[in-house]
Amino acid sequence: MRIFKGGELIVIKELIVIGCGGQAKVVVDLVEQLHSFQIIGFFDDYKIEPEFMGYPVLGKVEDIKKYNGIYYGGIVAIGDNWSRKKIVRRIQEMDPKFRYVTLCHPEAIVSQRAEIGEGTAVMAGAVVNTDVKVGHHCIINTLGSVAHDCVVGDYASVGPGAHLGGHVQIGEHSAISIGARVLHGITIGQDTIIGAGATVTHHITDRVIAYGVPAKVIRSREKDEPYL
Ligand SMILES: CC(=O)SCCNC(=O)CCNC(=O)[C@H](O)C(C)(C)COP(=O)(O)OP(=O)(O)OC[C@H]1O[C@@H](n2cnc3c(N)ncnc32)[C@H](O)[C@@H]1OP(=O)(O)O
């Protein structure tokens, strides 16, 4: 879609959103504030109502293929990291050329020297500093911060108000929960959850749940255990 605003040609790209939950709500709000995309609808396996947030629910994930070609790209807006990956894989099988958008809220601060992967959303008030690499399909949530030289793996998330010091590495699918802090130079493995409010002072291995101040590994994380 092309519109003229103040004599200037603006190209609005059509976007689909996968998911109709809390993450989708925040993504819609972000998209509306960007004024660069037109949401054409949602796809969700469980939503039966015809509309969500004033946009049509067009079907289940498998129905995306019926709409092939009428949208520019999409985003999987599902908060649970493993669930988000499963949906991305299903879409990949249906349409290997499906294009994902990268969304940064207009009030996020993202260094021009940071790399942000496709399908990733950077929410309001988040800060992503210089020489950071954020992978594909990540979430950098409201007021979260990622200091210089961090690496955030694909499908990982930095929760609301969580902070990463410089040179922190977060493994794929791992979640740094709301209000947690990770000291500079720390490595967090894959599939791990750092609980709300934790302060991480030592490296944390793969597939565990750790929390507290200082954070301790409390237990291992079961395969497919959801992140709430
Ligand atoms: C926009 C958004 O909403 S984004 C949302 C992002 N989500 C979050 O930030 C949620 C983060 N979740 C947590 O921190 C969770 O508590 C988890 C994942 C760490 C839970 O871990 P579990 O081992 O399953 O904890 P469980 O719920 O069984 O609780 C076990 C005990 O640990 C305590 N506990 C749980 N989480 C924490 C924590 N983060 N810090 C300190 N203690 C905790 C519980 O109070 C409970 O104590 P009790 O036995 O004395 O009652």
From TrEMBL:
The record marks D149 as: Increases basicity of active site His. The keyword Transferase applies. The active site is at H148. Residues 15-91 form the PglD N-terminal domain. GO terms for molecular function: transferase activity. InterPro entries: AcTrfase_PglD-like, Hexapep, PglD_N, Trans_hexapeptide_repeat, Trimer_LpxA-like_sf. It comes from the Bacteria. Substrate binds at G79. Acetyl-CoA binds at I178. Keywords: Transferase. The keyword Transferase applies. It holds the Pfam family PglD_N. NCBIfam families: NeuD_NnaD. This is Acetyltransferase. It comes from Jeotgalibacillus salarius.
